[in-house]
Structures are given as C-alpha cells and as structure tokens.
Amino acid sequence: EIQLQESGPGLVKPSQSLSLTCSVTGYTITSGYDWSWIRKFPGNKMEWMGYISYSGSTNYNPSLKSRISITRDTSKNQFFLQLNSVTTEDTATYYCARKNNWYYFDYWGQGVMVTVSS
Amino acid sequence: DIQMTQTPSSMPASLGERVTISCRASQGISNYLNWYQQKPDGTIKPLIYYTSNLQSGVPSRFSGSGSGTDYSLTISSLEPEDFAMYYCQQYDSSPDTFGAGTKLELK
Questions:
Q1: Chain A touched by B98 (CB under 8 Å)
Q2: How far, CA to CA in Å, does B33 sit from each of A4, A12, A87?
Q3: Which pLDDT tens digit goes with each residue over A60-92?
Q4: Which of A59, A95, A102 is nearest residue B44 as measured by Cβ atoms?
C-alpha cells in the first residue's frame, strides 16, 4: 500500500523558512510520477505549490517561484518542501501528494498544519 | 491562471437526496477536470478523474460530467459518509488550480 506522510515544525516565525518532509512508503519515488506539495488555507482555498518528478526535475507555481524549492533524498525515499521568507499568509495545512499518469492526485498524505506567527 | 468557480460553497442536504456540485472554469479546459473529497479529519481522496471517470473503490453513486467550461459532480443518493468537503481541480493549464470547495452538510 502506498502511503505518504508529512512531517515538520508546526510553528514558524515570520521571515524564516518553512521546511517539510514527505516520507513515501510502498512506492519508490524514482520509479515514476510527479510528487507534489499542495496547501489548504484557513477558509478552504487550495493551492498547488509545485512538484518534483521521478527524474528529479521540478515545476513550481509561478506565484511562489522566488520562494520555493522542492528537493529529494532518494536513499530515504523522501521529498522536501522549503518555502522561504514566510509570512502569516503562509499559514496553512500542507499536503504532499502523488500525481499519476492520468494527471490526478491519487495518493495524499494526511496533512500537516503549519502556523506562521511570532 | 485558470480560475475555477465552484458552487455552491455550502449545501445542506438530507440522507438519500440527490445533489449536484458545479465548477465553471474561466476558459475551456477540455475535460481536464478532477474531483476530490476531503473528510473532516483532513484526509483527501480522489473521486472522479478526467471529468467522468470513477476512481477505483469509489461508490457508483458518484458521477461526473461536463465539457468546455462547465463541469459537475453528482451524488445520486447521499449516504452518511458523504457529508464532507468537495473540490474540483483543473489540469488543462499549469498551474493546476482548485475550486474554492463545497461543504456538504446534513440538513
């Protein structure tokens, strides 16, 4: 069974960086597909943030392009989100998800809530 | 970015009722439209992909339709586990964008 699980600090100070890990079990992230970060804001808006592909290429939402980085550790079967210069507007629940060959997100993590506050 | 206008934002409904949720794209999206369900515990699962294809394991009371800019998700007869949030998502043009969500509530 494929499972994704997010982890990371639940509280980040404004202007600092937000760093999250997605640990994947049941599938090797270098075998295929795109591995995304998606966030859901208070008030329910959802935003696709970006992905790292099985080959290691990345694609980011232009709204975040100057602040976001998605990387991976293939030895641990994990991928990571770094979001720089956070503000209170980045308070959200962050999800990692797999996008399959039919272009939908078929597996999701349970989400991790991150609050940006001093 | 393509804007997805999802309606209604909330919908009180009764068990056994037939409900329809709509999504309108700001431009044609060639059926590149998916639907997701989010439960109160935060878990998200896909329901429908490419407008009308049912995800494996999803009950047949869920169906999707649409074309051009207008798409809909229908639940033919509400069961207790269907009271949740629903989102549409387009992937015709990057970045993928989501509708604002519909909260299906027990009347």
A1: yes
A2: 23, 34, 31
A3: 999 997 899 999 999 999 999 999 999 999 999
A4: A95
